[in-house]
Amino acid sequence: MDTIKEEEYNTLFKKLLELQNDINNILLNSINDKVASKKYRDQRKNIFSLIIGLKHKFNEREKDSIIRVKNELFYDIEMLNGIRLHGTPLSLRIYCLIFIFISPFLFSSNDFFIIENFSSDIFSLIVSLTISFILMALYNVQDYIENPFDQKGLDDLKINSLQVEENECLDF
């Protein structure tokens, strides 16, 4: 069994770094076109071809481990891209906003109270405005945490701190 050469290792490592940078660019910059997806899927095929070309240099345990890690990596990339692409539908967001703005008028009816006077009207209006305020706050929270890749706020994934750097390459 041959051993992997430094040049082969560096080639694989550089291809993985390129893939990492492209994926980070797609996630952080909200690139939403098929060209970007096709590019990283082509990179995935190239990396897989390179690994297959080197498989004779690994023992069975190493081969299984490499293939398992490769499959998990590319599955996770697809899941992250899916999270980025599939946010709350625009129609649902518009429906929520319309409901929030008309809810004070819907709930300010005097049908809830036996005594009809000024104090019950004020109470009814306060309750309906409170409900609207709570709904608007929930809508804003949902909007704030919608995209974990936009790097705005405390809820975001700190992708830049998770990056593997070139200096982390193994030395031969």
How would you characterize this protein structure?
- By secondary structure, the protein is mainly alpha-helical.
- It folds into 2 domains: 6-87 and 149-168; 90-144.
- Helix content is 69%, strand content 0%.
- The chain has 6 helices and no strands.
- The protein has helices at 6-28, 34-53, 60-85, 90-107, 118-144, 159-162.
Compact description:
With 172 residues, this protein is mainly alpha-helical. The chain has six helices and no strands.
SSE topology:
Blueprint: H1 6-28, H2 34-53, H3 60-85, H4 90-107, H5 118-144, H6 159-162
Beta-strand segment tally? 0
State the major sheet.
none
Q: Which outline best applies?
A: rod-shaped
User: What is the mean predicted local confidence, pLDDT?
Assistant: 79
Strand portion, in percent?
under 5%
Low-confidence stretches are none
Order of helices and strands: HHHHHH
Question: What gap, in angstroms, lies between the N and C termini?
Answer: 18 Å
Structural class: mainly alpha
How many domains in all?
2
Q: Residue share in helices?
A: 55-70%
Individual helix count: 6
